[in-house]
Design goal:
90 residues, globular
Length: 90
């Protein structure tokens, strides 16, 4: 995936539960765009604003916080994430 990519890429989104006894949940989604420190995802489930998340795509790992989660007409959610850390997966 490249910055500002027009080619959506599948991703696994891990949503932190905030409780070390409960590992949280995993959601599938698509990375639509990554520009500067902002990541745009589309997923079939709502993710709470301010949730800490981990996003794993084919070659990148992102750690961040959900800034917004807005429903769209296709029964999907567009999620904006403030990326705190991004790592290349080799």
């Amino acid at each position: 995936m490249t910055t500002g990519s027009d080619c959506p890429e599948s991703a696994i989104i891990e949503v932190s539960s905030g409780n070390s006894a409960n590992p949280g949940r995993k959601v599938t989604g698509t990375v639509r765009e990554f520009i500067r420190k902002r990541l745009t995802l589309v997923t079939g489930e709502e993710i709470a604003v301010s949730a800490a998340i981990r996003v794993q795509s084919r070659d990148l790992l992102f750690l961040g916080e959900v800034l917004s989660c807005v429903s769209n007409p296709k029964a999907q959610w567009t999620v904006q994430v403030r990326v705190k850390t991004s790592l290349l997966v080799v």
